[in-house]
UniProtKB/TrEMBL annotation:
Lineage: Bacteria, Bacillati, Actinomycetota, Actinomycetes, Micromonosporales
Family the UniProt entry places it in: Belongs to the CobD/CbiB family.
Keywords: Cell membrane, Cobalamin biosynthesis, Membrane, Transmembrane, Transmembrane helix
Cellular compartment(s): Cell membrane
Lineage top rank: taxon: Bacteria
Gene name for this UniProt entry: cobD
Pathway where it operates: Cofactor biosynthesis; adenosylcobalamin biosynthesis
Protein name, per record: Cobalamin biosynthesis protein CobD
């Protein structure tokens, strides 16, 4: 017999994923945007150019929503329908897989039609690179890398933590990931203040990124890829990336798609030279479309695993 609250969590995860498939990200009143406004308010009251202030900021900005989620979970322990609805809403708000795949397909459409200016205008929807001087192969590479990385951040990550900790796990992961996007990047203002937020995000994604890599290897046949090649490239190149997590996803995707990723990336005035991942040639527009399909497949597998894990944990 499965305890009702765990069954409700499993059902909520599946229902929330279905809501993401049908509706994608909410276009108005997105809860993550509301959290962003809350985090900005906390930042205004805690900011100082040092890591201690950044730690206080992260503790409040993550701790408050996690505490609220834990309280809501406690109040719905004996109300399975309410709990299912709550977990479904949080899962829908935390997931971004449908929107991610859609943006990838739009890029593929524009590259296939030769619409270079449209493709450059599309790239900011996927990543923060400067698209102004990028040619079609570089736009395709940027898209494949972004889709691979964000399959972990926007799909597998919240599902993994939902499986581990239920509603507080989903909310806490999304809070940490959002803080990293807000203050974890390199800049004069956040060089020290954002350090704790960035490291929290690294820790929160250690397991999800590697699960994403494993699921990408398993899903390679869906995009006519070779799982053995994907596994070989993942194990060989996954740790070459400067990020402890992004490289796991990108290397596995490079192996599954049979392409080569990495190279010179321009972010405004900052230039980074990334190591090459994979053995193939540069991604083509068709590979962008394949990357979107791979992301959808990995996401579907992650939903099933998360729901099954939550259900199994609730067995008496």
């Amino acid at each position: 017999m499965v305890r009702p609250r765990y069954a409700a969590d499993a059902a909520g995860i599946v229902l929330g994923a279905l809501l993401d498939v049908v509706f994608g990200d909410p276009r108005r009143w997105h809860p993550v945007a509301g959290f962003g406004r809350f985090a900005l308010m906390v930042e205004r009251r805690t900011y100082a150019d040092d890591r201690v202030a950044g730690a206080r900021f992260a503790a409040v900005a993550v701790g408050v929503p996690v505490a609220a989620a834990a309280l809501a979970g406690r109040l719905t322990r004996r109300r399975p329908l309410a709990r299912t609805a709550l977990v479904a809403a949080a899962t829908w708000a935390a997931l971004g897989g449908t929107s991610l795949a859609r943006e990838g397909r739009v890029m593929a459409d524009r590259l296939e039609s030769g619409d270079l200016s449209g493709a450059r205008a599309q790239l900011p929807n996927l990543c923060g690179r400067d698209p102004s001087a990028l040619d079609p192969p570089e736009l395709a590479r940027a898209t494949v890398e972004s889709v691979a990385e964000n399959t972990s951040d926007a799909v597998v990550g919240p599902l993994f933590w939902g499986a581990v900790a239920g509603l507080p796990g989903i909310v806490g992961y999304r809070a940490v990931n959002t803080l990293d996007a807000m203050v974890g990047h390199r800049s004069a203002r956040y060089a020290r203040f954002g350090t704790v937020s960035a490291r929290l995000d690294d820790l929160a994604n250690l397991a999800p990124s590697r699960l994403t890599g494993a699921l990408t290897v398993a899903a390679a046949p869906v995009v006519s890829g070779d799982p053995a090649q994907a596994l070989r490239v993942w194990l060989r190149d996954g740790s070459r990336h400067p990020s402890p997590n992004s490289g796991q996803c990108e290397a596995a995707a490079a192996g599954a798609l049979g392409v080569r990723l990495g190279g010179r990336n321009v972010y405004g005035s900052r230039v980074e030279e990334r190591p090459h991942l994979g053995d193939g040639g540069p991604p083509a527009p068709l590979d962008v479309r394949r990357a979107a399909a791979l992301s959808v497949t990995v996401g579907a597998a992650a939903v099933g695993l998360a729901a099954a894990a939550r259900w199994w944990r609730g067995r008496r």
